[in-house]
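Continuing from yesterday's entry. The apo prediction looked reasonable, so today I'm repeating it with 2-acetamido-2-deoxy-beta-D-glucopyranose included to see how the binding region is handled. Same sequence as before; SMILES copied from the compound registry.
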Amino acid sequence: MRRSVLVFLLVTITILTFLLHTVSTLISLLLEDASSDAIQKSELPAPNSTLLSSRPQLIPKIIHQTYINNSIPAQWLAAQQSCIDLHQDYEYNLWTDERSLEFITKEYPWFLSTFVGYKHPIQRADSIRYFVLAHYGGVYIDLDDGCKRRLDPLLSYNAFVRRTIPTGISNDVMGAIPQHPFFLRVIESLQGANRKWVLPYITIMASTGPLFLSVVWKKWMGEHSDLLQDGSPNEWKGRVRVLMPDEYKLHSWSFFEIYSGSSWHGKDARLIFWMGKNWLLLTAAGTILVLTVGLCLWWVYGRLLLLGKQRGFLAGGSLNIGARSTHASRSSPGRRTAKQGLPLWRKWTVSDRKPSYELVEQHDA
Ligand SMILES: *[C@@H]1O[C@H](CO)[C@@H](O)[C@H](O)[C@H]1NC(C)=O
Ligand SMILES: *[C@@H]1O[C@H](CO)[C@@H](O)[C@H](O)[C@H]1NC(C)=O
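Holo prediction written out below.
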């Protein structure tokens, strides 16, 4: 009996460790506040500041946006125009479905089958932005993000992404120099992340969306923590700076303002946004799921063991009594005592609905 407990515990611990390992990046994401890479308020001049910036411009002056075709829906026209108007000297690129397909076919043929094979159009809209940033560099902006001030101060970093609350980063505003190592890693990781999950929302989030990007980002930081802590004046090129919520949209000095509607098409969008905003809840739910799986394994294992015992007795001919007396034993006063005599772990696994097992156990004890 002792040995089987040990086996059970080992199997359970192995499975739980595996499950916990798979959610560990999510849990560490929850604890990541990005403070070490945050773009500090003091680094950014005010929108109409007379301060002459001496910082170099690294990111090329290119704005990328995506949509199905050139007919931008009315609710985003103002947002799109606000970015174009403020950046007359920037190159403007609208990546339509047709243009995106041509680009991937020509420049990244190894990704074409994955790109075409994506079940949800949003996955193509998500992935194309990583490719154009890795390829040309520049700043990607979602169509529902309007520009409130010029992006110039953000061009002095090698790469930046946007922080989301309570955790992780989003892919709605991102900037990078061409061939930035982080975005190269992102495009390399897309095929490995192309898995189907039960819910389409999770599939989109985890294969190409903000969850995917956040996981790659978290791993990237983990792998290069030595370079990041180095604090040398020659800043590591692979560092990804993080635009914080205040600078993103909340204030007069923020870079963007959100126009109505979401650039994700259809009803899915609302749920995806909801999920993006409720990581904490989802991760807690995941942890509960892991624990539930553990308890179920525990229960099933106990059941199987008892069943095995029962079979053994049937073969020996002595369980017939137990099996027939199932009903009677339910009210038997000896039942509780029988259960008390069991080892603790067996007590937990023995259900009150099958008292016949307990009779077996009585023999066993
Ligand atoms: C900066 O100047 C422009 C043009 O003068 C003006 O429209 C805008 O409101 C100013 N922005 C802020 C944040 O003061
Ligand atoms: C662009 O796409 C929208 C949405 O699918 C469609 O309604 C519209 O007809 C398309 N416009 C053109 C010019 O193809």
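Comparison notes:
- The pocket of 2-acetamido-2-deoxy-beta-D-glucopyranose (ligand 2) is lined by residues 68-69, 71 (CB under 6 Å).
- Residues 279-316 form the longest helix (38 residues).
Will overlay with the apo model tomorrow.
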